[in-house]
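[Discussion] Sanity-checking designs against the backbone

I'm trying to build intuition for which residues belong where. Below is a structure token string of 537 positions. I'd appreciate it if someone posts a full sequence so I can compare it with mine line by line.
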């Protein structure tokens, strides 16, 4: 009776102790790992051979030859820290199967040993993502924390890109989340250090560097000229030390220009692939449409020869009618799109806003950047998963964006046997999002109904930032867009082959690219509107 009375009064100290968050998160990771293990024999892209060759290259050659080797067409074009990472993995690859790291005999090597070894390295490296999301969510309440874990650890886009197509995005995004977690805690020096390390692993994350610079300058280096200058010197020394560790050996060998040429191949063209959904999709289509129209009207206009649907990395043909686009133009456009965010960070550098600002920066880079990879949507979708639990409006935005981002990756898996996998992954993710957001944003009403009138105001105040009692529903325009997405997929997958056969094979992929570009542009505008709002109290 005494135990019963104590439980009725809210004393549950003698009851079962709740699990530690880190153990619960590891269960989430273990479930995801089991699914990833089942996908090991599935389709893999040329990126699989790229990374296998980098294992062989870094293992077989001295450091001075890493960025000069042309044994394979898959030359090393990542920053030095990633090359060191490949060198570290090559030690174990040599133990598992020496042919994996043989520079000549290993070309296009595809035995079970290399497949399982490389797949498992990606799964294990995802522990960095797990640690990052743990740090970033440990101050949240349990419901929101677990919802973010579902959105990130079970992300179907990460499964498609890393564990089917093959890359190490989870590992790299984990470093980004670690950096953001330090900044949100006010530990700016560690946050800047982690971001500098990330840039030395993959330079494409540098799109957010202006946001980091302005934020750290105004938040970390504040407190008067002397204190600010001292802190600026400390931060600069840390960043320089990281870059010296990465690039120092290549500077010593006089190879820094070669490293930079490999990392920034501006000759590859404006677009990386036909399905990267961004602003340049509309620009290319407009140029092609105008060139065809003007020719029919009798004007002498050269029709572009490069195929919009080739999907290959290579030089793009000059535009026929519209002005030529150069890397400098895209750089300026990205900075202009970033400027509202930079102004906000300069005026009011709030730690709780940094994740949202960084996600917006990566969205700008994706929309207006040069030679954008379709996988780069992960750079803003994953951080926005943390933001999604903050308000009902954020949840609605993420629900739509996450589906669009995942669907835009479908062309990466073009073989028939992978079609059920990617569809099931997206449907499962959409269902989990719906259930999770419904549980999160409906809990306010259930809590209020279960409490007395004397406590009602207090509870409403505590949950007002996340739970308004309004059920999670998407609006008409979002429903219409998602219905259109379904129509596009049905046409591309079923009606087009049945009606037109092999005619106009580029149309399905072009429709997917255009439609997903609309969704990404909508997300960019939505984030920009949020940035332009007055700062929250």
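Best answer:
Here's mine. Compare freely.
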């Amino acid at each position: 009776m005494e135990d019963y009375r104590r439980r009725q009064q809210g004393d549950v100290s003698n009851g079962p102790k709740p699990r530690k968050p880190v153990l619960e998160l590891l269960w989430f990771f273990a479930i995801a790992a089991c699914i990833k293990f089942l996908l090991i024999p599935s389709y893999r892209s040329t990126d699989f051979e790229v990374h296998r060759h980098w294992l062989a290259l870094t293992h077989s050659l001295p450091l001075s030859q890493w960025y000069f080797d042309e044994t394979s067409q898959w030359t090393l074009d990542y920053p030095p820290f990633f090359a060191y990472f490949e060198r570290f993995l090559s030690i174990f690859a040599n133990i598992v199967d020496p042919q994996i790291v043989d520079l000549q005999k290993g070309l296009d090597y595809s035995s079970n040993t290399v497949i399982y070894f490389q797949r498992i390295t990606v799964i294990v490296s995802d522990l960095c993502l797990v640690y990052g999301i743990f740090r970033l969510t440990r101050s949240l309440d349990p419901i929101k924390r677990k919802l973010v874990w579902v959105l990130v650890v079970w992300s179907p886009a990460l499964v498609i890109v890393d564990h089917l197509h093959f890359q190490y995005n989870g590992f790299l995004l984990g470093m980004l989340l670690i950096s953001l977690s330090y900044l949100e805690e006010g530990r700016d020096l560690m946050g800047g250090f982690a971001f500098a390390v990330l840039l030395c692993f993959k330079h494409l994350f540098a799109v957010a560097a202006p946001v980091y610079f302005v934020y750290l300058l105004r938040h970390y280096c504040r407190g008067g000229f002397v204190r600010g200058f001292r802190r600026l010197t400390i931060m600069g020394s840390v960043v320089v030390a990281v870059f010296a560790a990465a690039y120092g050996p290549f500077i010593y060998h006089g190879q820094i220009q070669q490293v930079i040429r490999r990392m920034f191949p501006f000759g590859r063209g404006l677009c990386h692939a036909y399905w990267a959904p961004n602003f340049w999709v509309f620009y290319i289509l407009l140029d092609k449409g105008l060139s065809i129209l003007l020719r029919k009207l009798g004007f002498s206009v050269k029709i572009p020869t490069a195929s919009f649907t080739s999907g290959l990395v290579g030089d793009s043909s000059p535009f026929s009618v519209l002005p030529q686009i150069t890397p400098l133009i895209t750089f300026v456009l990205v900075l202009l799109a970033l400027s509202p965010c930079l102004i906000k960070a300069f005026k009011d550098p709030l730690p709780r806003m940094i994740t949202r600002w960084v996600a917006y920066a990566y969205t700008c880079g994706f929309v207006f950047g040069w030679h954008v990879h379709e996988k780069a949507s992960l750079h803003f979708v994953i951080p926005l998963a943390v933001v999604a639990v903050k308000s009902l409006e954020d949840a609605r935005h993420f629900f739509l964006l996450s589906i669009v981002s995942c669907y835009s990756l479908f062309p990466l898996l073009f073989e028939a046997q992978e079609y059920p996998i990617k569809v099931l992954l997206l449907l499962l993710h959409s269902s989990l999002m719906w259930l999770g957001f419904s549980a999160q944003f409906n809990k306010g009403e259930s809590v209020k109904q279960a409490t007395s009138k004397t406590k009602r105001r207090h509870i409403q105040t505590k949950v007002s930032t996340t739970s308004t009692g309004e059920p999670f529903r998407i609006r008409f325009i979002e429903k219409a867009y998602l219905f259109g997405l379904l129509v596009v997929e049905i046409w591309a997958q079923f009606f087009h082959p049945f009606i037109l056969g092999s005619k106009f094979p580029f149309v399905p992929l072009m429709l997917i690219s255009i439609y997903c570009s609309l969704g990404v542009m909508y997300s960019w505008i939505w984030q920009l509107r949020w940035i332009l709002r007055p700062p929250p109290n």
